[in-house]
Amino acid sequence: MNRTSTRKIRAVAKHVRMSSNKARRVAHQLRGCTYMEALSILNWMPHRACYPILKVLRSAAANAYHNMNIDKGSLFVLMAEVNEGPIFKRFRPRARGRGYPIQKPTCHISITLEDLDDSNSIMVKK
Hints:
It is found in: Plastid, Chloroplast. Belongs to the universal ribosomal protein uL22 family. This protein has 3 helices and 5 strands. By secondary structure, it is an alpha+beta fold. The chain has a 3-stranded antiparallel sheet with strand order 1-5-2. A two-stranded antiparallel sheet has the order 3-4.
């Protein structure tokens, strides 16, 4: 194999108490952006899903800085994915002693960053 080694940095948040579809619409906006662009996008979007995704993005950048000594300005979002987690099942009491099922979805958020200086092909946001 004659591949060049790229430095990929990953951070994951598991069991985030949010629907995966709502988090995916925010994560979709970040793919291919630089780290600074992704921060500004997340700070100005009005969705509730922005805060946990912002925490994961900052964690991945901190991992890059502390573990591999990569400057945060030279990072871009290679992959941002949101997968479904387990569903918390609860029951709400209703009339006549019945119970109504409540489903509380969770999701797993993972963000992969890559160093701009190392990568030969940069994903361009369309």
